[in-house]
Predict the 3D structure of the following.
Amino acid sequence: MYDHEDSFEVDKLRSQIRHLRNELDLVREENEATTLNYYDLYKNLENQVADRTNELKKAMETIDNYNHKLEAMLEERTRHLIKTERHAAFSLLSQGIVHNLKNPLSIISSATQLLKLAKPDPNSADFEQENIEFMGRMDKHLDKIEKGTKQMLEMINSLMAKSKNDTTEELAIVDINELLQKEIDFLNADPIFKYKIEKSINFFPMPLVVEILPGELSQIFQNLVRNAMDAMYLNEYRKIMIETGLSGGETWFSIKDNGPGIPQENQEKIFDPFFSTKLRADKNTNDEPTGTGLGLHMCSQMVENYEGHIELNSNKGEGAEFKVFLPKKEIKEELLVVN
């Protein structure tokens, strides 16, 4: 009886083991199937991620291409606007010079007419005395003619030198003091600059030599002076201070006005392209100054091309000062180019 029961229990145990083994086999098969499914899903997801990555890469390349094209278009447009602005400024000052030529021409014409009217009649009984008086008056009128002619030559030479500087495409070694003085002389063709603005000019006593495109330096200076004039548009009393100097290995020049100053929130973006506190020309309804927002950006870019920089110092109600730093060029004084 005891042996039979033991045998029965053993068989029962074996049956349970076989059942567990079968269940274990089923679980193993299910796990293997699940693993394969997960592997297939993983590979499928991996392929999808790779496909999406390639698509994104192609999209980014397309966007980069568009950005490069837009940057090129913007650069070309900016160059065009800068060139247009330069030509407009040159045209404006040229008109001023042509207008100013009328004064010496009028002097010459008047002196010539007076000489013709005062010419003595050879048949007059007092011809000898009249001739003596005429010769005395002639010297006075000839002095006027000479003075008028000299003024005209100076204006024409200034215009020709300005035109040459603005059109040259080659680097030149120039003295900042000399070039800025010529620009100031040229700006005097503008009656507002000449008669309505007090100017304080303080040049460094020694030559400040830089290697630069003269036309670009002229444009930077002209732009900063024009901005200073525009800033003082509503001032009854206007003053511009122009100064040059030397600091370590850098030369510098500054333009300071007594306008309202530049608000702090605008100083951080004052050199950004197309940022301007002035009205656009197409929105101006009176004689207020207008701007494109490219002037200071252009100045900053040109100065940086020569490894220089521009500093802005301004407080509300105390005007603004722009200080342009450029690397000093070490050169023998006799090699300095005189334009």
Q: What stands out?
A: The CA atoms of residues 31 and 37 lie 10 Å apart.
